[in-house]
Design goal:
With 191 residues, the chain is an all-alpha fold. The protein is elongated, with a radius of gyration of 22 Å. The protein is built from eight helices and no strands. Helix 5 packs parallel to helix 6. It has a domain of 89 residues.
Length: 191
C-alpha cells in the first residue's frame, strides 16, 4: 500500500521521520517516495504549528534531497566514464546532468571535466550535507530525550483518560494531540 497524505498510519509516519527512509511509503521509485513524503509533510505542516518539528523535518528533507542528488550524479558520472555506450547515449546522460545544473561541455574532454566536477561539484554537495547533518544532530541534542511513538500514544491516553488504537492515521493522531493541548490549557485556566 502507498501513502501520499496524512491518512498514513501515524506509526509509519514517525518511523519514516525517525529513520529518514522514505521508501517505507511503498512507491516504486525514490522520486515517487520523496514526492509523496513532501505532500504528507506539507499537510503535516498545515495540521501542526510546531516550529521545532517544521525545522526538523525541513532539514531532513534537505538532507534526503541532497543525498539523492549526490547519488544520482555520482552514478551518472560513473556510467559515462565506465560503461560502453554510443556517443548519442553519452550525450543524453550529459544533457540530463546539464538539466541538474552540472555543466559539461560536449566539445571538451568529458573525462577531465567529470574528474574536476567530482572534486568541485560533488565536494560542494558533500560539504552542504555535512553542514546539514551537523545542524540536524545539534537540533536533536538540544531537543532532549527522544520520545518513542508508544510513549507519545500512552501520554495522550493518560491525559485524555481513554484508550487509543495504535493503528490510527496521522491526521487522527494530530487531532488527539490537539485535544491534549486543549485539555491542558483548560486545566491551567482552572488553577
Amino acid at each position: 500500500m502507498t501513502y501520499s497524505d496524512c491518512s498514513i498510519p501515524s506509526r509509519l509516519f514517525f518511523e519514516i521521520v525517525d529513520k529518514g527512509d522514505y521508501s517505507l511509503l511503498g512507491f516504486k521509485t525514490d522520486a515517487e517516495n520523496n514526492e509523496a513524503f513532501e505532500k504528507i509533510f506539507d499537510e503535516y505542516y498545515e495540521l501542526t504549528n510546531s516550529s521545532r518539528i517544521k525545522i526538523d523535518l525541513s532539514i531532513r528533507s534537505d538532507i534526503s534531497m541532497l543525498t539523492y542528488k549526490l547519488k544520482t550524479v555520482e552514478f551518472t558520472f560513473e556510467s559515462i566514464v565506465n560503461l560502453p555506450m554510443t556517443d548519442a547515449q553519452r550525450g543524453e546522460l550529459i544533457d540530463s546532468l546539464n538539466q541538474l545544473g552540472v555543466k559539461i561541455d560536449k566539445e571538451k574532454d568529458i573525462i577531465e571535466q567529470i574528474e574536476n566536477l567530482k572534486r568541485t561539484y560533488l565536494g560542494g554537495i558533500r560539504n552542504k550535507l555535512s553542514l546539514l547533518n551537523d545542524k540536524y544532530e545539534s537540533l536533536k541534542k538540544s531537543s532532549g530525550v527522544k520520545t518513542s511513538y508508544e510513549k507519545m500514544l500512552v501520554n495522550i491516553e493518560n491525559v485524555l483518560e481513554r484508550s487509543i488504537p495504535e493503528d490510527i492515521s496521522l491526521r487522527k493522531f494530530l487531532a488527539y494531540e490537539q485535544s491534549v493541548k486543549e485539555k491542558i490549557a483548560q486545566q491551567k485556566q482552572r488553577r
